[in-house]
Design a protein that fits this description.
Structural class: alpha/beta
Helix content: 25-40%
Organism: Billgrantia sulfidoxydans
Pfam families: Aminotran_5 (PF00266)
Distance between the termini: 19 Å
Number of helices: 13
Oligomer: single chain
Family: Belongs to the class-V pyridoxal-phosphate-dependent aminotransferase family. Csd subfamily.
Largest sheet: 7 strands, mixed
Mean pLDDT: 96
Number of strands: 17
Strand content: 15-25%
Shape: globular
Protein name: cysteine desulfurase
InterPro entries: Aminotrans_V_dom, Cys_dSase_SufS, PyrdxlP-dep_Trfase, PyrdxlP-dep_Trfase_major, PyrdxlP-dep_Trfase_small
Strand order of the largest sheet: 4-10-9-8-7-5-6
Length: 419
């Protein structure tokens, strides 16, 4: 059946998706004899040739350790690495490049805040507010501090659409509330949270706000100063970059006051057994040891690629894909979409009566379609909705309307096989 024929045209502006796709060689693959349809972008997006070529260029021409060498290769590697810091600063509209700390990704960034700022500023009885929409990486670090320090973790509830209850959020604050840790976009449902409003409420109560931006930066313009984030974290592999590289934004005055989390080379000024060790200036005191140099450089290239494609145009295109996919799968008997917020990013999460999500994912893979199944590292959220797993299709700049149609047809075929 043709799921698209009766739909109205996309409201997105003209978008050269064919030109975008040509830059992603993996999309030329066939899986089980069928053209690959990659709808697992919320887990990891694919990388364009510009990013892939960065690795060959780095390892072919200037592979060297950074910051400490005086030779030409070290100078070139250091310059390229630090250029990415400026790229990230500009991408997030941070005020100062010193406010950008490179990490392995969002998970490490949140753990850095928990183990540095958290241990230095939280005591027994203090409160950290998270939401039911959170990824485990923004739950477990605070639970560990609750066990170790005696702090309390409080949870913002959601309604039946997967939208945060802001009245309940405001009611959670007490004089002991020190931090709000919330995602910008839910990886499980695609809900876009009103983080600017949430930041205002937190600051009115004297609390800070940490925003998990892993699922936001691929889809929308992020301005950390406009949303008044105190901390903002994201991962490169969600935004057309490599795994193993991401960044934490934190206001400079917070970083200045925070103690180092990990010790080693690069994060020190001097080390002695006779006098106290002194630490490097920010951000380097949080970047112990040799980093993922090539990955960080490639992250900068990925962000430049996004800027070139136009993040607003990417977001509009993905919104159209989500609209079409939602309409198409809604016609399937027994299929229930989880996460129906009015403001969503390109994530479609669903369950099917009488069918196990794992069976659907395995069978639809045989038709060349890659989707994600499981709890999406959001077990508390799924448990709240009475399920242990969902199927999740998620979209990126290189996905097409034809792929949406093929996905809907394949899904209907697979459901007919398993029920």
């Amino acid at each position: 059946m043709n799921h698209l024929a009766t739909e109205r045209p996309l409201s997105a502006p003209a978008f050269d998706v064919a030109g975008i796709r040509a830059q992603f060689p993996i999309l030329e693959r066939q899986v089980h004899g069928r053209p690959l349809i990659y709808f697992d972008n919320a887990a990891t997006s694919q990388t364009p040739l510009a990013v892939i070529d960065t690795f060959r260029d780095y390892f072919s021409r200037y592979n060297a350790n950074i910051h400490r060498g005086l030779h030409t290769l070290a100078d070139e590697a250091t310059a390229a690495y630090e250029a990415t810091r400026e790229t990230v600063r500009d991408f997030l509209n941070a005020a100062d490049r010193r406010e950008i700390v490179f990490t392995r990704g969002t998970t490490e960034a949140i753990n850095l805040v928990a183990n540095s700022w958290g241990r230095a500023n939280l005591v027994a009885g203090d409160e950290v507010v998270v939401s039911l929409l959170e990824h485990h990486s923004n739950i477990v670090p605070w639970q560990l501090l609750a066990t170790q320090l005696g702090i309390k973790v409080k949870v913002i509830p959601v309604d039946e659409r997967g939208v945060l209850d802001l009245d309940a959020y405001r009611a959670l604050f007490t004089e002991r509330t020190k931090l709000v840790a919330v995602n910008h976009v839910s990886n499980a449902f695609g809900t876009v949270n009103p983080v600017r409003e949430m930041a205002t409420v937190a600051h009115e109560h004297g609390a800070l706000i940490l925003v998990d931006g892993a699922q936001a930066v691929p889809h929308q313009r992020v301005d950390v100063r406009a949303i008044e984030a105190d901390f903002y974290a994201f991962s490169g592999h969600k935004v057309y970059g490599p795994t193993g590289a991401g960044a934490l934004y934190a206001r400079a005055e917070l970083l200045e006051a925070m103690p180092p989390w990990q010790g080693g080379g690069e994060m020190i000024k001097s080390v002695s057994f006779d006098v106290p060790t002194t630490f490097a200036d920010i951000p380097h005191k949080f970047e112990a040891g040799t980093p993922a140099i090539a990955e960080v450089i490639a992250l900068g290239v990925a962000l430049d690629w996004v800027d070139g494609a136009g993040i607003e145009r990417i977001g509009a295109w993905e919104a159209g894909l989500l609209e079409r996919a939602t309409a198409a799968v809604s016609r399937i008997d027994g299929l229930r979409i989880l996460g129906t917020a009015p403001d969503k990013a390109g994530v479609l999460s669903f369950v099917v009566d009488g069918a196990h999500s794992q069976d659907i994912a395995l069978l639809i893979d045989q038709l060349g379609v890659a989707i994600r199944t499981g709890n999406h590292c959001a077990q508390p959220l799924l448990a709240h909705f009475g399920v242990t797993a969902t199927c999740r299709a998620s979209f990126a700049a290189y996905n097409t309307l034809e792929e949406v149609e093929a996905f809907a047809d394949a899904l209907e075929r697979v459901i007919g096989m398993v029920r």
